[in-house]
Specification:
- The complex is a heterodimer of chains A (183) and B (505).
- Chain A is mostly helical and 183 residues long.
- Helix content of chain A is 32%, strand content 8%.
- Chain A contains five helices and four strands; from the N terminus they run ααααβαβββ.
- The longest helix of chain A has 24 residues.
- Chain B is globular, with a radius of gyration of 32 Å.
- Chain B has 15 helices and 17 strands.
- The chains are: A mainly alpha (183), B alpha/beta (505).
- The interface between A and B is large, with 33 and 38 residues.
Amino acid sequence: MLSAALALTLLALVFGLLLGYSSIRFKVEGDPVVDQIDAILPQTQCGQCGYPGCRPYAEAIAAGEADINQCPPGGEQVILALADLLGREPKPLDPERGEEKPPMVAFIDESECIGCTLCIKACPVDAILGAPKMMHTVIADECTGCELCVEPCPVDVISMVPVKEDITHWKWPPPKVANGDSA
Amino acid sequence: MKLWTFHGGVHPPGHKRESTLRPVKAAPLPKRLVLPLLQHLGAPAEPAVMVGAEVLKGELIARPGNFVSAPVHAPSSGRVVAIEEFPVPHPSGLSAPCIVIEPDGEERWHPACQAADYRDLEPAEIRERVRMAGIVGLGGAGFPAFIKLNPGRTVKTLILNGAECEPYITCDEMLMRDRPEEVLRGAMVIRRAVQAQHCVIAIEDNKPEAIEALQRTKRQIEEAGDIEIVTVPTRYPAGGEKQLIKILTGKEVPSGGLPIQLGIVCHNIATAAAVHQAVEKGTPLLSRLVTITGSAVAKPRNIEALIGTPITELLNLCGTDFDGLGEIIMGGPMMGIALASYQVPLIKTGNCLLAISRTEIEQRPTVLPCIRCGNCAEACPINLLPQQLYWHARSKDFDKIQEFDLFDCIECGCCAYVCPSSIPLVHYYRFAKSEIRAQQEKKRKADIARERHRKREERLAREKAERKARHARKRPATDENKKAAIQAALERAKAAKKESSPDEV
């Protein structure tokens, strides 16, 4: 009886020490779930989800505060990937947050720009170039299409234009099969 | 030489006789030459001329965009009339930036085109000449040729690919028949550039005249003595780079690997002829042989045409029935792409224009459901499982499809050829590949955006902290400091009063 109790206590002690040691030795920095969610999000940094950027939204999802259907730029693809990652049921995009749109890029009508720098301050990825009283322009390659620069412009010369399709980024459409092949 | 064999493959009807009966004809100078800036794999070239500029034949009009790129030259002397977007030969039918030249008909050569003896040139000089001559792989893929001249490893075998296994296409065959010397001389130049120990020219056994011509010429050129001309059995796709390497050496290029890992470099014979032209004659790539054939063409033949010639002019030269035309394919029937627009120019990689009549297209069998017969797996020269790839492409399961090595698929079309249900399998694979590439590109851009956003947040926080610190230094905010400041101001005011008061009294 005593030996059994001793043996169990000893075992518990050994495993306790082992667990305690490994929790220090193999400590994971940061929250890996947040990183995984953040990797799925489109990084538009538009704030349409109600959080100031993609990372805060990822943190909110991980904490269970936000739902997985609040990202309009990511659309269905992101919802499906998040549902897959978190083992939740996919659901349609929350219409209050906005709707899924084709990829856009901001465009400044440079002839009318007054150089107020308000759009530069609004851009979450520093994709607008310019200086006070100098014309501004969008670095199209870096623009995420978040639309945050449109609102602050006092002279309304920023518009969102669809990303131009070119032959290097063109995608093959899925084959159109008229008859059969429905197996 | 001992030959090996590769898995699968098919024997489609050759249809090569039609276009080899007539001799090669040179196309007349067109009214306009449209030169796309992207005619190769890699980055587009960048224009080096302005609209209105007079250019000479062979003059550089667009320089390479980056390392993996190729320059573009003026195929004839004339004037640059436009640099803008025009339709290009591409399955999308989209337009892309082009330089348009109106030839003046004088064919004045640019003085930079200087001949040289390749034996006096170092390998690096040969590569630079090939690079600046704008030579790309003329077999169809269009990879800038100079990169494959710079292997960075010891090259045991240089293979020149004259297999031309795809039905209908005969431009390589006619080149070997008409200009065997250029091919052999090109082989010698490339051999020097890559310092290959051994050089093989491989030709399918359905081209006896080409083999005969090369062998005859080889006997006349002393230094070409050790170039081996090998006849390989006709079986599609024997001309695929990896398949040809397997046939000649018995070795397999590893998945995702390159032939150079086996000490092998492979070039097309037309590329070799272009290398000879560039190095020994100083002529950049200005023209190519193109096969005009198909059921809608009355007089199929090969034409030597300037790059940039409108394809409709080439088709007209061979009596194409445009009223009964169903579609035009650039390339062959197995791997070629159906053109969405006919108002496009001939480009460097355009080896064949296959004009198919509407009646022939109407006779194509309808697509039926997959019956899981497995014929496709037997025909696949890469040993893939085409049926699995098909199912996953259909259900857009792009992670799964990569587990079945989608990117090893060479899109040869053997699976679709043997499919009893006529399923457009290759189209499914192209769809899946472009979707996956687009997703990867999206991911790359998202990573950049994340990084830029993080850097911006950091910068804003730092600026805020700096502003605060500056503030604290300038205007001390504690109560005592405030009191002291007020006191000092009062004293200053008193002193001022004292100074001014005596006068008032």
